[in-house]
Amino acid sequence: MTEIAAWLNPLLALLSIAFGMIGWAAPRYTARALDLHPGETTMGLSEIRAASGALFVGLGAGALLIGTATAYLMVGCAWGAAAMGRLTSIVADGPANRRKQGFFAVEAVVGGLLLALNFG
After folding, report:
1. Over the stretch 47-99, which tens digit does the pLDDT of each residue have?
2. The whole model's pTM is what?
3. Structural domains of the chain, count
4. C-alpha–C-alpha distance, residues 39 and 9, integer Å
């Protein structure tokens, strides 16, 4: 692992944990930020806590615990896939607003950095 990767990998894993904590601990805030609206049950909040929250906490924490390039590469794959999904939405779902573009940029940068630092 290069010197840059040795400090940037854990930093990006901590970023993943921080963003995940927002979704996990504050699902109503996250729902508002993502233009999601509550339904008749709390299933939506549960989904936000799981998929937009604890999942990213687990990814970051797992990479920090394992500490290998492969572990950080997998976090990059997850963030990269999120960026691909966001880009699909930008193309297929209509005009991209600043929030959607901002989320895409963060996902693409985090995923791209982790993939570039740890592939091969």
Report:
1. 999 999 999 999 999 999 999 999 999 999 999 999 999 999 999 998 889 99
2. 0.93
3. 1
4. 38
